[in-house]
């Protein structure tokens, strides 16, 4: 079997989707392990959430592929999970975060050492497994879904609709603007 440009494009698209799926997981997991969301700026997450919501509504209005819509729903849910984590851990700090060292010794740190998250797997296994997941899900999704029906349309009809375009641009501005509060927070 030959891998045409259309087939390679579909496989790369499925790999891209799997990358978009795994990108949030490490942050959510680290927040859970540290029992803290202090590393995240609330305005950053809120702007990201608004960006994902406008992306979702724009995708629905434009009647984009189901994978695009599902990914937008997934990202919106992840944004909400991050917000819940940040607010929950700020209201209910872990015992390590509540410990305050009181001493007259000037060399003693005022705050306890931050807990380091424990990785699920050692990095020598974690990274190759994540890369394998991305590669295999790209090929696997293509194989299971449309290996025989891959084609590139010769004259694709693109209908631009102003509402979905406006939502798309708003989403892009919100995504880009969200970085500013996070940079300031850092």
From TrEMBL:
The keyword Transferase does not apply. The chain crosses the membrane at residues 6-29, 41-62, 68-89. Belongs to the laat-1 family. PANTHER family: SEVEN TRANSMEMBRANE PROTEIN 1, SEVEN TRANSMEMBRANE PROTEIN 1-RELATED. It is a multi-pass membrane protein. It catalyses: L-histidine(out) + L-arginine(in) = L-histidine(in) + L-arginine(out). GO terms for cellular component: lytic vacuole membrane. GO terms for molecular function: basic amino acid transmembrane transporter activity. Keywords: Membrane, Transmembrane, Transmembrane helix. The lineage of its organism: Eukaryota, Fungi, Dikarya, Basidiomycota, Agaricomycotina. One of its GO terms (biological process) is vacuolar transmembrane transport. Pfam families: PQ-loop. InterPro entries: LAAT-1, PQ-loop_rpt. It is found in: Membrane. This is PQ-loop-domain-containing protein.
């Amino acid at each position: 079997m030959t891998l045409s440009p259309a087939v390679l494009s579909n496989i790369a698209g499925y790999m891209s989707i799997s990358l978009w799926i795994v990108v949030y997981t490490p942050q959510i997991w680290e927040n859970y392990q540290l029992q803290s969301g202090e590393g995240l700026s609330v305005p950053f997450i809120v702007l990201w959430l608004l960006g994902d919501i406008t992306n979702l509504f724009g995708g629905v209005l434009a009647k984009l592929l189901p994978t695009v819509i599902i990914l937008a729903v997934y990202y919106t849910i992840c944004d909400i999970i991050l917000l819940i984590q940040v607010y929950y851990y700020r209201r209910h700090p872990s015992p390590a975060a509540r410990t305050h060292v009181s001493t007259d010794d000037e060399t003693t740190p005022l705050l306890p050492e931050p807990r380091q998250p424990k990785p699920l797997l050692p990095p020598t296994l974690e990274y190759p497994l994540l890369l394998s997941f991305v590669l295999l899900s790209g090929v696997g999704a293509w194989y299971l879904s449309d290996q025989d029906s891959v084609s590139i349309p010769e004259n694709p009809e693109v209908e631009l609709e102003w509402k979905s375009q406006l939502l798309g641009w708003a989403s892009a501005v919100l995504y880009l603007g969200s970085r500013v509060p996070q940079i300031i927070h850092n």
